[in-house]
Automatic annotation (TrEMBL):
<comment type="pathway">
    <text>Purine metabolism; IMP biosynthesis via de novo pathway; 5-amino-1-(5-phospho-D-ribosyl)imidazole from N(2)-formyl-N(1)-(5-phospho-D-ribosyl)glycinamide: step 1/2.</text>
</comment>
<protein>
    <recommendedName>
        <fullName>Phosphoribosylformylglycinamidine synthase subunit PurQ</fullName>
        <ecNumber>6.3.5.3</ecNumber>
        <ecNumber>3.5.1.2</ecNumber>
    </recommendedName>
</protein>
<dbReference type="Pfam" id="PF13507">
    <property type="entry name" value="GATase_5"/>
</dbReference>
<keyword id="KW-0658">Purine biosynthesis</keyword>
<feature type="active site" description="Nucleophile">
    <location>
        <position position="86"/>
    </location>
</feature>
<dbReference type="InterPro" id="IPR010075">
    <property type="entry name" value="PRibForGlyAmidine_synth_PurQ"/>
</dbReference>
<dbReference type="InterPro" id="IPR029062">
    <property type="entry name" value="Class_I_gatase-like"/>
</dbReference>
<keyword id="KW-0436">Ligase</keyword>
<comment type="function">
    <text>Part of the phosphoribosylformylglycinamidine synthase complex involved in the purines biosynthetic pathway. Catalyzes the ATP-dependent conversion of formylglycinamide ribonucleotide (FGAR) and glutamine to yield formylglycinamidine ribonucleotide (FGAM) and glutamate. The FGAM synthase complex is composed of three subunits. PurQ produces an ammonia molecule by converting glutamine to glutamate. PurL transfers the ammonia molecule to FGAR to form FGAM in an ATP-dependent manner.</text>
</comment>
<keyword id="KW-0963">Cytoplasm</keyword>
<keyword id="KW-0067">ATP-binding</keyword>
<feature type="active site">
    <location>
        <position position="196"/>
    </location>
</feature>
<comment type="subunit">
    <text>Part of the FGAM synthase complex composed of 1 PurL, 1 PurQ and 2 PurS subunits.</text>
</comment>
<keyword id="KW-0547">Nucleotide-binding</keyword>
<feature type="active site">
    <location>
        <position position="194"/>
    </location>
</feature>
<keyword id="KW-0378">Hydrolase</keyword>
<keyword id="KW-0315">Glutamine amidotransferase</keyword>
């Protein structure tokens, strides 16, 4: 499986993402600069964390105008897996690929620490390697992770099982402890915690690797025929 790691001016978790895919997962990965106009050669799209355009205005609000975002939308419409982590999640929200918005953390402090997450929905293509309600440890590092949406959107998220991860202890004030959500179709996931930084026990946790393994397993089942 071949992944695109999209790089925006100010991305700083692209190397971690690339390392997780290439060295820990053992799949193909390529850096793709934000002005690229063609993602047709990739099977999965990864938007890594960082401070695209210095987080000016609102995190992700400038990056979502990048050329590559039209291609990310196309890939999502084609049903390809699209994962946005931290700033990647913020960009997906700004692009309208996921509902809701991100506010500054309650307390207005940047939080960088391990987080306990509950896997609320283990039926997505991103989480099928976990069990329902499994608690995993994945680090967070953000100043703008306070997820917010209106009541109707929240009801839809709950009714469609689109809330995928919640925090055991809410670090940022996000609505209903939301740490990650998926789109209605189930192929676009945004999450504030960093699974790419939890892929080896030397990093304090290897719980994140299952997320990437789930993507590959589900992709193989759908695309690779064995005789
Ligand atoms: N690591 C990240 O992507 C976090 C940066 C992010 N722009 C923030 O809210 O602070």
């Amino acid at each position: 499986m071949k992944f695109a790691v999209i790089v925006f001016p100010g991305s700083n978790c692209d190397v971690d993402m690339y390392h997780a895919i290439k060295d820990e997962l053992g799949e193909e990965a390529e850096y793709v600069w934000h002005d690229e106009n063609d993602l047709s050669g990739f099977d999965g799209i990864l938007l890594p964390g960082g401070f695209s355009y210095g987080d000016y205005l609102r995190s992700g609000s400038i990056a979502h105008f990048s050329n590559v975002m039209a291609e990310v939308k196309k890939a999502a419409e084609q049903g390809k897996p699209v994962l946005g982590v931290c700033n990647g999640f913020q960009i997906l929200l700004e692009a309208g690929l996921l509902p809701g918005a991100m506010k500054r953390n309650e307390g207005l402090k940047f939080k960088c620490e391990p987080a306990s997450l509950k896997v609320v929905n283990a039926k997505t293509l991103f989480t099928s390697g976990y069990t329902e309600n499994q608690v995993i440890s994945v680090p967070i590092a953000h100043g703008e992770g306070n997820y917010f949406c209106d009541e109707l959107t929240l009801k839809r998220l709950n009714d469609n099982s689109q809330i995928v991860f919640t925090y055991s202890e809410n670090p940022n004030g996000s609505l209903e402890d939301i740490a990650g959500i998926v789109n209605e179709r189930g192929n676009v996931l945004g999450m504030m915690p960093h699974p790419e930084r939890a892929v080896d026990s030397m990093l304090g946790s290897s719980d994140g690797i299952k997320l990437f393994q789930s993507i590959v397993k589900n992709w193989r089942e759908a695309h690779v025929t064995t005789s």
